[in-house]
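hey can u run this one w/ nicotinamide-adenine-dinucleotide bound, need the structure tokens asap thx
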Amino acid sequence: MSATPTIKLLINGEFIESKTDQWRDVINPATQEVLAKVPFATSDEIESAVASAREAFKTWRKSSIGVRARIFLKYQHLIRKNIKELAAILTAEQGKTLADAEGDVFRGLEVVEHAASVGNLQLGEMANNVASGVNTYTLLQPLGVCAGITPFNFPAMIPLWMFPMAIATGNTFVLKPSEQDPMVTMRLAELALEAGIPPGVLNVIHGGVDAVNAICDHEDIQTVSFVGSTHVGTHVYNRASQAGKRVQCMMGAKNHAIVMPDANKEQTLNNLVGAAFGAAGQRCMALPVVILVGEARNWLPELTRRAESLKVSAGTDPDTDVGPVVSRAALDRVTTLIQKGVDEGAELVLDGRNPIVPGFEAGNFVGPTIFSGVTTSMTIYEQEIFGPVLCVMEAASMDEAIDIINANPHGNGTAIFTRSGAAAQRFQEDINVGQVGINVPIPVPVPLFSFSGSRGSKLGDLGPYGKQVITFYTQTKTVTSRWFEEDAEADAVNTTITLK
Ligand code: NAD
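ok here u go:
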């Protein structure tokens, strides 16, 4: 019998075996097969990763825009060429369907494409003759070693939100992927080196709490980007800010959709079912709460029928709509919360617990589940369930629905379904949520923009990828300059602050 493969660390351009004695199994959530063992890197190994990034920064910061662009052009080509293999790795370790796993890689690929053309976003500004013969201009300079900590639910897209833009702007990077599914991230790291990223510019360490805390505390790390749950993100934000770093944390969510009675019914119901149950509800931009307004309240039976018709099985089956949740612990959490919903008086109109999944009896499956009569004081409303569970609420008017959403602490995403332009316009104006869909269920912005979750879903001013991240990954240096001909007449001594 062959030994279980081990996940390597990437330090200074080498994939190396950790010397740790702490390992964790990477488990296929559909079968419980152990796919690999992931190390919890030692403090010496974390130190080496940061040291190699610090050393590499000395030369990488001076690399030309063209050199960086060509690496990312090659990288996007390699990701595209290997997308099926990447998706298969991702499905095996994370559980989502192969089609959705390709989507996960593709949404990251879009950031890589953008990283190839980032030069024009890193242009400084210049004002000629701010005083006579004096020019002022800005340089957007890289900061040094940047770090990223990523969650399990998008193990391709979210690492690709981070290191390509950091590296394309001239920084070097230390990445700590989720210990639950690090394999696709490592394949992406291999392709990054194949594309030409030099030794030390990208480093990957593995681990949990200790590795995260070491990143937050390390004096040579300039920025920390975190995506994950609210309680860990809040800890990371406080600890890394305290240590003087720039920090951005994208955190938990509870996204609501408002359904107006004038919406296109077919389109709306299909969108709701896809957004609530796709990826087994394990998306930070999923729609776990739907508010049916007015006559749309009568759509619940049809919504339930469509949810019921989804196929629950392993992500490798091309007919699967809902794959397993990531772990036994996640399954226990979801089923406990469903029971809590029942106990607190919500009506369980569709119970997805204990589905029969032939051939995958050991998998972490829970099928689409719908509660109606949900109120804002129930635990299933207050907590992020992160499973295929939809809470249906009702409102008499759009204003009442907007009030419910604005009173929720989260601000990651929201959507309205309507055919009224006036209603949509008022919704976009009055809703206090950072990412808004109008007849679009999962409005994750493409990389021409930045991910802009708000309120309780985010800490830090600037979002990942897109334009905002250029500011995050650079220091603006403002230069005021003046040049003299050899025979220029000297100015008189000027003891005021004014430029003449
Ligand atoms: P998580 O917070 O458990 O883990 C995220 C990272 O933090 C991992 O790398 C993990 O190793 C590390 N970590 C876990 N516990 C820690 C601790 N106690 N101290 C220090 N580090 C710790 O999140 P997850 O379960 O992997 O991902 C799901 C969560 O991420 C959900 O809440 C989801 O909404 C959120 N998420 C948010 C966005 C967004 O853009 N807002 C995107 C994706 C996921």
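Residues 149-154, 176, 178-179, 208-209, 212, 227-229, 232, 235, 250-253, 284, 384, 386, 412, 451, 453, 457 surround nicotinamide-adenine-dinucleotide (CB under 6 Å). anyway lmk if its weird
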